[in-house]
Design brief:
87 residues; 0% strand; globular; 434 Repressor (Amino-terminal Domain); mainly alpha
Length: 87
């Protein structure tokens, strides 16, 4: 995988990850403010995470994911399995 493919994969994963976080937050009926407070992050961070900003800090992103019930390891395993099927 070259650098361009890596960047494209990272961008795509960031977008899907953010979309999943937003879906779960909404399903749990949490506002951005509520989740930001629970995770110890700012609203701007959550907004950027939910909109797929690929440079969001991974540690904080994992905290947010766990608070809405997402398992990042399972998401990665699914992502790589799907990427393998597309080849």
């Amino acid at each position: 995988m070259d650098e361009l493919q890596t960047d494209q994969t990272a961008t795509g994963f960031s977008r899907r990850f953010g979309h999943l976080v937003r879906q779960r937050r909404r399903a749990l009926d949490l506002s951005l403010e509520d989740l930001a407070s629970a995770a110890g992050v700012g609203i701007r961070f959550l907004h950027e995470l939910e909109h797929g900003k690929p440079t969001c800090q991974i540690g904080r992103s994992l905290v947010v994911a766990s608070l809405v019930g997402l398992d990042p390891v399972a998401l990665l395993e699914t992502e790589f399995a799907e990427a393998g099927e597309q080849r």
